[in-house]
């Protein structure tokens, strides 16, 4: 039994490029983001990895990244041979609230470098109207435990295309990271993280494809 779980952060979005807080806003991928997603798919193919089902968020950039990866793997998106897809806002990016759509440099001018840094990098301090990383985890973790993990433990090969902070929350559980450690974790766009789990749900192996 393989117990394969692959996590991929979406490729660069238009708002990543413009240095804007994105959160639950829904910009598309840049040309670079499209190529990052395709490269992730090629790396998975070169590693000989295939999948039985997929998970993604309710946001376009994660869904498009998944589509591009599947295309590179030679998997049709619809019809015969396509894979089951679960889309859920539980896997959405962290909601940045009042910061959403603002340039990060402008936000620093408005609220100060230190305050914006706290909002961005602390574990449990949320920006006005938004979520902290802990809040994001509070919706990601139950979804993982009740949907994704049972599929993996039943021997399904699972691919998840999501976001920097929703994946940080997942990796916090998988890698057993402390709140301090997870805030320092950086995830590159379009880079697959390949996990294989033991029978007790702990991590047997982790490989980063790049």
UniProtKB/TrEMBL annotation:
It catalyses: (2R)-2-phosphoglycerate = (2R)-3-phosphoglycerate. The record marks 163 as: Transition state stabilizer. It comes from the Bacteria. Keywords: Gluconeogenesis, Glycolysis, Isomerase. SMART domains: PGAM (SM00855). Belongs to the phosphoglycerate mutase family. BPG-dependent PGAM subfamily. This is 2,3-bisphosphoglycerate-dependent phosphoglycerate mutase. It comes from Afifella marina DSM 2698. The lineage of its organism: Bacteria, Pseudomonadati, Pseudomonadota, Alphaproteobacteria, Hyphomicrobiales.
